[in-house]
Amino acid sequence: MPKGNRVSDEELLRDLRELADDLGYVPTAREVQKNGTYGRATYEQRFPTFSVAVAKAGLIPKPWNLLTRKEISEWHKASVSQDPDYALTGIFFQFLPVKLDVYLDFEPEWLTALAEDTILSIPPEHTYQNERLEIKVPETWTDPHTNEKKETSLPDLLDWCIAEHSSTPLNYTDSIEYAWNKISSEINFETPRPHIVRGGVRKVTKTDLYHTHGVHLARNGASTEWIAQRMGLNKPEQAEAYYAILDHHDEY
Q1: 3-state DSSP call for residue 163?
Q2: 87, 141, 153, 225: which sits with the fewest CB atoms below 10 Å from its CB?
Q3: Can you tell me the distance from the alpha carbon of 158 to that of 152, in angstroms, rounded to the nearest whole number?
Q4: 11 exposed, middle or buried (CB, 10 Å; 0-12, 13-18, 19+)?
């Protein structure tokens, strides 16, 4: 295996693309180590993370099964059309890139009103960085497919949740996945999904929504520092992957 310090970044990225062509799919770091011209360590020394290298090569890192602009628009539309318990489950993770247990263990006192904003204050034990995290619950968003400014419906659904329940409804992993599958069944997907559930429904996962949100933040011009804080990334440079995806893929 050649020494990586003797090649340019572009040659490293080109080797990733060529390996993806040979394999017929985007390689993982382990597959690059086994089959690539340059090893995993070379990429991780040159780029903030292996995922950033993959994105800068014009590929989509595994297992980021991103929703396109049209698909995320349909996801929101399909979520809003559900009963409140299902709607909250779909929209919560579209706009809040948090751990699953934030939803499963949700407590009403985590929500506070500050001026006209609703703030979700997440305890350290439920965050990626083990530090208390305060996130503004978005009231509106710009639909990336239509470019229309729309209500997210999330604050109202959270108010309904507090009024009607002592915690979030469907607060079991299986129940959440069932709700997401129901929402997914109403979407006309443009891209293939690797996970198919009963009835041929193309499954959307929390990871899909998490990284789709990262791309959405980058599309709206958020800084890498701000994205890292909101997404719970270890360092701002990791958010470069979301910008790189937008550089190479118009559909996102």
Answers
A1: helix
A2: 225
A3: 11
A4: middle
pLDDT tens, residue by residue, 154-194: 999 998 888 887 778 777 888 888 899 899 989 988 877 77
Reading the block at residue 24, the tokens are 């017929």
Query: pLDDT value at position 236?
Result: 95
Q: Over the stretch 73-115, which tens digit does the pLDDT of each residue have?
A: 999 999 999 999 999 999 999 999 999 999 989 988 999 887 7
Which sign does the torsion angle of CA 126, 127, 132, 136 carry? negative
**What are the tokens at 250?**
């118009």
Is 50 strand, coil or helix?
Answer: helix
C-alpha to C-alpha distance for 139 and 113, rounded to whole angstroms: 13
Nearest to 66 by CA among 196, 169, 170, 216: 216
Instruction: Tell me, yes or no, if the pTM score tops 0.85.
Output: yes
- What's the rounded Cα separation, in Å, for the pair 5 and 39? 11
Cα(210)–Cα(203) distance, rounded to whole angstroms? 14
Find, among 159, 58, 149, the residue nearest to 112 by Cα. Answer: 159
